[in-house]
Amino acid sequence: MSALFEPLTLRSLTLPNRIGIPPMCQYSATDGLAGDWHAQHYGCRAVGGAGLLIVEASAVLPEGRISPGDLGLWNEAQIGPLARLARLIESQGAVPAIQLAHAGRKASVGRGWEAQSTLSAEAGGWTAVAPSAIAFEGYAEPQALDAAAITAVVAAFAAAAGRALTAGFRMVEIHAAHGYLLHQFLSPLSNRRGDEYGGSFANRVRLTREVVAAVRAVWPQELPLLIRLSATDWVEGGWDIEQTVALCRLLKEDGVDLVDVSSGGLIPSAKIPAGPGFQVPFATRIRQEAGLPVAAVGLITEPAQAEAIVANGEADLVLVGREILRNPYWPLQAAQALGVAAAWPAQYLRAMPR
Ligand code: FNR
After folding, report:
1. Which pTM was predicted?
2. Interface ipTM above 0.90
């Protein structure tokens, strides 16, 4: 028996196995619209056998894009092309999810493979916004959000969640990790506000909790809500695992169903001890101390490693990112490696080892 290939039920939704594909920006959209690249990329990976596929960071407001190539969910025209992706994913037996994002002070830079510096207006850039006018190292200084703009951000997350539902997604993930807007509010290193959104722990987590509440209010009760958190900034005096656990206890009350546990992204010079499964212990702590289901992510590349994480109760779900960019059929091959019947598509059966 393989624990990795056991189903996982969250609210009324059942994932066929414990392998998910985390959100990974393709930087290939125009005006936030998904196109043919996205269809081939997500369609191919849905065939690969993962139980959950989380479509990349999709901006809830145009100024919340990392780059001009980001997907968006800020207008109605963006629903149709995303509905095509949700259909493609679901037709192959995977659960379609999408990440709702706002880049804050890390907005307005080149696509992932271009220069990671602030784009000028002539190059299609815009002024980034943030909790405080403190730049991400090497980027332009952002504009601090005022109270009305914060209210608009909360409303934009909720409206984007409504559009994701119309497009046919069955889960949404709120992006509160990797140094983007919500994480910028969480961390004392980027949030120096003097109002009710800055200072104390309760104030710094306020925006994230307001976004969760607003999304939960439009997201159907029977469908799960995910959040991605950076468990630590990996910097002394920053956001850390103790604060993350405390936040997760609150998020459990607020209606979050699973925490996708990543780390870092706020301070580019942070020393991160990356290695196989290096973020898994954070997921395990949240699972044990906050009592919420968790996804582990980060350098999980081997079937036996993924199997052990789930079998040992370290996480409920594993997310495999770059390895599945390299090899879309990783989940099917993992099944074979673990002695589980792999559901290769009938069209490919003649290519399978006998
Ligand atoms: C990412 N990652 C990421 N994370 C996120 O929360 N939203 C996103 O849109 C993206 N985009 C993205 C693009 C690309 C090309 C890569 C490689 C990564 C991070 C990703 O979800 C994952 O957490 C990391 O890649 C670590 O997992 P792996 O790759 O070690 O399995």
Report:
1. 0.98
2. yes
